[in-house]
Amino acid sequence: MRFRSIGVRLTLWYSGLLGCTFFVLAAIGYSLLSVSLAREMDSALEGVAEVLVRTVREDDRSFFPDDVDELFRRFFGFSPLDRRVELFDPLGRREDMQNRDERSLEMPLSEAARQAAADGRPLFETLQSPAERYPIRVLTMPVLERGRLVHLVRVAMSLENSVAAKRRFLTVMAAIFPVALLLAGGGGWLVARRALRPVDKMTRTARKISAERLDRRLAESGSGDELDRLANTLNEMLGRLDESVSQMRRFSADASHELQTPLTIIKGEFEVALRRPRERPEYEAVLRSGLEEIDRLNHLVEGLLLLARADAGVLATDFQQNDIGVLAAKVVEQLTTMAATRRISLTLASAAPVVVDGDGEHLYRALMNLVDNGIKYTPEGGSVQVRIDDGADEVRIAVIDTGIGISTQEQERIFHRFHRSDQTRTKNAHGVGLGLSIVQSIAAAHGGRLEVKSEPGRGSTFCLILPKKV
Ligand code: ADP
Residue 112 pLDDT > 70, yes or no? Predict the structure, then answer.
């Protein structure tokens, strides 16, 4: 059976462990009690027997003294009623005693006791007499004279007291056990409930958190215990989720906005053109402008698709050996006219072939974005230089411009999707703010990274760093 409540499970474990501990302790206590009772009785019997042996040896037939009671009191601390002292001859026949009123054991001397006495050894036995209810502890001790066995002294006592003491111990334990178990179970249940109360609270709060209410947080007690750390970790996770959901929402809103702008322009231009009949060159101009907007749309959708693939981790699947020098030369050639019209010198340093593993198309696009940005954000008369440094493990492709530069605060934001600095927004109508995100995603897909160093008014250096082997 599986219990769904940790509280119940903890209580059961707790009670079970306590029950086991109690049981083991009771068993140990019982054994210690038994051993010590047996030892005490044996040593007392031995004491009495030794004195009796001495008396027999000295007075011979004057066995036994009147003060047997006194003797038992000395060794047992009390004189029990069921004590027995007997005298036997070496053949095991009961001998007469002076003290006639002494009770004797209704049992003959055992063979083992006689044998031990013949060897000069005392022998302890626990016997069950048919006439008695409780077992009897018996000590048979030889009386030797000059090494010869002359008598045997038998001292016996009922184990009634020991049995009763052990039974009392067991009764007390049996009475305590359920009470202790009940107290432990109840206490354990209360402690577990108290300890787990914050978990219930967390569960209730967590149930109320949805995508629309990601700003809610779990209550932290501030105690620093395990539950507090759990609440803290969950809150941190909620914070990250909240941030990425907000980012996604911003991204969708920005994307829709950017897609809508060219469509609105095309629609407006077409509507105006259709208001009255026009000459062919006028229609052509409208169509050309519409095509430009469609190109923009196309570029934007391509960028969005690339980012979506990068997010899904399926970008750049076609890895081949690419000469970065050749790719950079193609980009420079492609953008030379654009740079020339803006009177910007565009140059490429390093002609030696530098080969990296990667997707040629994506790498071309990344370089294109960086160089295009360099030209876009550099005033007339400036320069853009592409420099390739071939390292041992990685290749650094730096695009260095003498443009408007980027402030330190801006440098953190330029990699966000759709982010464009206010300065560039006003100066440059083209670009939607996806270029650097795309370069970054391409770099990441190749196991590389994109770094920026810039100083406002002096220029920027964007460095695409790629490992030579992925
Ligand atoms: P955009 O399409 O606006 O160029 P990017 O993601 O390529 O989008 O760039 C984001 C922003 O980073 C730009 O709007 C611009 O403010 C800044 N930026 C990028 N490259 C440069 C550069 N070479 N010099 C100065 N600012 C730059």
Answer: yes
Question: Is residue 18 pLDDT above 70, yes or no?
Answer: yes
Write the residue with the smallest CA distance to atom 12 of ligand 1: 414
> Tell me, what's the pLDDT at 421?
78
Residue of higher predicted confidence among 61 and 258: 258
Alpha carbon distance 405, 403 (integer Å): 6
Residues 29-46, mean pLDDT to the nearest whole number: 93
| 264 CA → ligand 1 middle, Å | 25
Higher-confidence position of 104 and 143: 143
Predicted structure pTM score: 0.61
Instruction: Give the distance (Å) from ligand 1 centre to CA of residue 462.
Output: 10
* Alpha-carbon span 357 to 467, nearest angstrom: 8
Q: Give residue ranges with CB within 6 A of ligand 1.
A: 369, 373-374, 377, 401, 403-404, 406, 414, 419-421, 424, 431-437, 460
pLDDT digits over 187-206, tens only? 889 988 888 888 888 888 88
**Among 213, 192, 186, which residue's Cα sits nearest to residue 7?**
192
Q: What is the pLDDT of residue 286?
A: 94
Domains and CATH numbers, the chain: 6-165 (3.30.450.20), 226-311 (1.10.287.130), 316-467 (3.30.565.10)
Residue 32 has pLDDT above 90, yes or no: yes
